[in-house]
Specification:
The protein is flat. The protein is built from 13 helices and no strands. The protein has 317 residues and is mainly α. Helices cover 75% and strands 0% of the residues.
Amino acid sequence: MHEHNPKQATSTSADGMTGMDHAGHHSMQSGTDAARDHLEMTRKMREPWLWTNATVALLGFWLMSSPFTFGYTGPALRSSDVVSGVLLTVFSVLAFWPRWDFVGRWTVAFVGLWLQFAPLVFWAKSPAAYLNDTLVGALAIALSILVPMMPGMAHHMAMMQPGPEIPPGWTYNPSSWHQRAPMIVLAFIGWLISRFLAAYQLGYTSSVLEPFFGEGTQRVLTSKVSQMWPISDAGLGALAYTLEFLMAWMGGRTRWRTMPWMVVFLFILVVPLGLTHVTLVILRPVVVGFWCTLCLAAAAVMLVTIPFTVEEVFAMG
């Protein structure tokens, strides 16, 4: 029989507790090191693109001064621009610090999205206000998540396993620039057409181009079908084309597998909204009794972009 030694038991117990303490301390230290490594990775990947933060901050100051420079008459839009300008400046400056990069740049992107809606929600009476908000909003989105890498992607890309550019079983890459270039060009054309129609609905122009159907475009844009929307439906179309244009640029040649959420968002933007747009164009001559040349052109542009979007979704699946 072995004789029980209290000192040895105490020593063993103490050693056990010490081992647990060391394990806990090591785990906390590993977590701290991982967080520090993540911040350092973010800092290195963001370093070449810090000029985008400075540019957005300047855009914020520009937006804050715009209502007083261009003489906005609507108090709601004036307040919206001042607040949006402050948010752009504050969060773009915060994004200089790696710890605030994610929150700062995504906030800038959402403010940019709001600026696309603001002149439509408040029915901007000045064309300068509409032009200013939509352009600043598009630049804010581009400079926060398009030109630099999307916030939060640094760690994701570092951990991702390498893979093929061409999907298995395919003979071409649906995310290549050859495939995305037509989407970008068509989205830009659709944006121009929709902004022209929105300018008439918002009261910036007194006439609208209609080469084939007489007063058809004017009758369609002022019909009950168009007025059933709380905002300009042509302006909403311009917003959709703006987002399609920006999202078509986003990501690299392998985004069908590295950025599946972007492929899904683009699909939702193009396909359901595109089919809705086409349906409305078909219903208008039935309900209103007139055709609209530019509406048909915008619908045709949206229809052509659908196959390019569907291909990426299939590849992602």
